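ok so i was messing around last nite and threw this chain in just to see what happens. nothing serious, just curious
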Amino acid sequence: MDIDIASFGALVVIDEHSHRVELRSLWQQHSAVIVFVRHFG
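result:
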């Protein structure tokens, strides 16, 4: 199962424009998803 990292990056950018304050936590969540997929996927 391949996840396009650029897609996650785009989501982070979109979230940054809407919720700048939450960017850091959102990025941590996306990073956790990527790690999870790499480990179990």
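not much to say yet. Residues 5-40 form one domain.
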